[in-house]
Every structure is written in structure tokens, then in C-alpha cells.
Amino acid sequence: MRRLPWRAAKLTGIRQETATARTLVFTIPGWPGHLAGQHVDVRLTAPDGYSTERSYSVAAPERGDRVELTVELVEDGEVSPYLLEVLEVGDEVEIRGPVGGWFVWRPERATPVLLVGGGSGVVPLMAMIRARRAAGSSAPFRLIYSVREPDQRFYLDELADPQPGLDITYIFTRKTPDGWDRAPGRITAADLDGVSPGTDSYVCGPTGFVEAAADHLIALGHAPDRIRTERFGPTGG
Q1: Ramachandran class of 51: left when φ > 0, alpha when ψ lies in -120 to 50, beta otherwise
Q2: Phi–psi pair at 191, nearest 5 degrees
Q3: Residue-wise pLDDT tens digits, 180-234
Q4: Percent helix, strand, coil in the chain (nearest 5)?
Q5: Do 33 and 62 touch, CB atoms closer than 8 A?
Q6: Residue ranges of the FAD-binding FR-type domain (predicted)?
Q7: Torsional sign, CA 127, 184, 234, 116
Q8: Which of 15, 29, 222, 234 is deepest in the core (most CB within 10 A)?
Q9: Residue range 41-86, pLDDT digits in tens
């Protein structure tokens, strides 16, 4: 199997998402393209030759040589503090990809889709939502997005812009907005009820969140092979 090459990626744009997360826009000459749901590896190399790398989900569908990554700061991490606090527009890193072929959504598929995201696990799901809009797809989409507090939601302004056929539900585990009708708490089977078992489900987030959501879906009658999961855990950032 041919090994994917590392490519020079120049930072060309930055968008603030939350107090601790930004979307970084890179231009990568020769980029082969990607699908919504795939990820890339980012490598940093110090002057003394020491290098380290981390994987990040792509946050937007293919747009030529442009790749968007939404990165959340990991305290005491090696990579995310550099990307968010040191890297400036015009600087370069190395990126390899795209990686992954299972956790992807293709615009030609018209089956209803359930997206379940925990924290920064919403990033590849947002790529799917954006791909749906760009393709003019009529596939029904439902996003269930769980975060600790309201100000930790990514892409808030964009998701507030109505998109026909896209239904969005927020779950807050620690603190809710004033007047919210659901008490703070983790995702439950009731939050996922009412979704047709014929739906394609994509679940992404921390391991415990993903396992709980997948178990709830199976208990509600969803076939395991229709539930695609992607999980992350402590990586050192």
C-alpha cells in the first residue's frame, strides 16, 4: 500500500469558534481532495529535528487545495498550543492525508442521516452538514450535539442559519441556557428516540460518549452496521 506523502500546508486563515477553539484554514498545493468525515495528520518539526504529530478531523468538504481544521486547545499539549497560540497566517506545517474511508458521508446518498457529536466530535459531522449544503442534497439530517456548557458550542452562528431538512438538538451536560427545557445531563436513549432504524448514524466524541450513544441506538432497534463511530481519547494534544 502506497504511503501518503507529507505536504507543506500554509496557514491562510483563522476563525475563532469558542474561547479555546479555532478553525485553521490551510492551503496545500497538490492536495488530492477529501470526503466529509475523513481526517489528516499534522506534523510539527523543531529546529533540532524533534517532531511530533496529531490527527485532526477535516471540518469542511473539499474545496480545491483548501483544508479546514477546527482545533481545541489541550492544556499542556504539544501540538494544539502551537497551532492556536504560535502559528500565524503565512506560517507552514506539514499535513498528510486524507485518512479514513469508513466514517464518511457521500452527497449522492439520499438515506436519512443522524449525527451525534460530543464536544469537538462535532467537527467531522459539521463537514458532512456543509457537504450536504454544498451539494444541494435533500437527504434529511438530524444533529444531536452534546457539550458541557452553551459557550462551548462550535459553529454556533452557522448552525443558527436555517438549512432545510436539517434538525438540530443541543444537549448540555453541566450548564444550560436560561429557560432550557432539559435539565443538564448526559445523552440518554430518550434523546435518540424517534429516529428511524433505517437511518445512517454517525457518532463521534470521547470514547465513553460514543459507546453510550451507540448502545442506546442499538437498544432502540438500530442495526450495528448502520452505526458508524469515531472516538478519541487523551493524546497529549
Answers
A1: beta
A2: -65, -25
A3: 999 999 999 999 998 988 899 999 999 999 999 999 999 999 999 999 999 986 5
A4: 20, 35, 40
A5: yes
A6: 4-105
A7: negative
A8: 222
A9: 999 998 898 999 999 999 999 999 999 999 999 988 899 999 999 9
